[in-house]
Known about the structure:
Layout: H1 3-26, H2 29-50, H3 56-78, H4 82-95, H5 99-104, H6 108-118, H7 125-135, H8 141-147, H9 152-168, H10 178-200, E1 204-205, H11 211-227, H12 232-245, H13 271-285, H14 293-306, H15 315-328, H16 332-346, H17 348-356, H18 369-380, H19 384-397, E2 399-400, H20 401-412
Parallel strand pairs: 1-2
Amino acid sequence: MTATATIEAVWRIEQPKLTARLARYLRDIGLAEEVAGDAFLLALERWPRDGIPRNPAAWLTEVARNRALDRLRRTTMIDGKHRELAIDLAELERAMPDIEAVLDEDIDDDLLRLIFTACHPVLPAEQRAALALRLLGGLSTAEIARAFLVPEATAAQRIVRAKRALRDAAIAFETPRGQERRERLAAVLEVVYLIFNEGYVASAGSDWLRADLCGEALRLGRSLAALMPDEPEVQGLVSLMELNASRFLARTGKAREPILLLDQDRGRWNWSLIRRGLDGLNRAMTLTSTPGPYLLQAMIAACHSRAATAADTDWIAISAYYQALALSAPSPIVEINRAVAVGMAFGPAQGLAIVEALMDEPRLKDSHLLPTVRGDLLERLGHQAEARAAFRQAAGLTGNDAERALLLARAASPSDIRS
């Protein structure tokens, strides 16, 4: 491994811890992230020349601490926050004199604070996702831009606006408790879920699957699960992602074309990851008697994972879980998925009835999902011309090139649903 690759690997591991540790004292996530970045840039300059330090984390922490002190000293001289910043400066100088002692501290609380702050619901979802990938994933602005297929300037703007919004709203760097914690946890999980889903079926671009983005979400989810082992929804989300990620090798063909679930070679599924996901699901189910949305979705994924063949899929159980999900977290997307399950369990006519009830739903007017499912159900009922029209409509709405090609192929020759 080259020195640069080693530095990047160290950075990916240490950056969230360093930023979290600094933010505790600086009380400013933006400033903490900036001085942590300064330390990384200095490492890129010096380590290839001088060699990797014996303790890279200690080196980065000391450099970042000194940069933070320098910035605070300058700030106390040029703006009016003398009293507040002087307290911060004195606390930082007093609380971080021994780098080795700092590294021995339990970092879990600081990381939790960082996660809850970066994913604060005061931020729009796309800003939360960008900031989480930056602060918790250690991704560069360019990497985040590639992750969401947006210009680098757009990704940078999201990050800047997120940090500014947190500062302007005076969001405390803390882990909420009680009801506020439950409410904020939902926002945190939404960010991880959003990142994974964007990788699982990319909303735009040429690739149907973005395994790198799914990997980042899974890494964030596992970190959160380690920090909050008694939260069933956290454990449920990780299990859901692991079970879905187990299918990656089977989800695309040699030409990177999509292969839908019921057409996949299950011998290519990652059974080690499935066992891990099922074990996590079992643990999560012992933590609650009322499964939440992520745990219910993990239960649905488990039904697919336990089926040795597509014909063995327990669609009756899946449709029941979707009914419970519709009550727990109602949304048009849940209803579309419920229509698929009901159509498989009880016949396409019943599934189509659910779809038809959604035709005037304004939140679905630009979504390709509704006409896709409608087309399949119509085809299974023998209404070929209407099915083809629905698939063509869906192809015109999707932003993903691979999915568009699949839908146009189905419009030319509809076949049974395999989603």
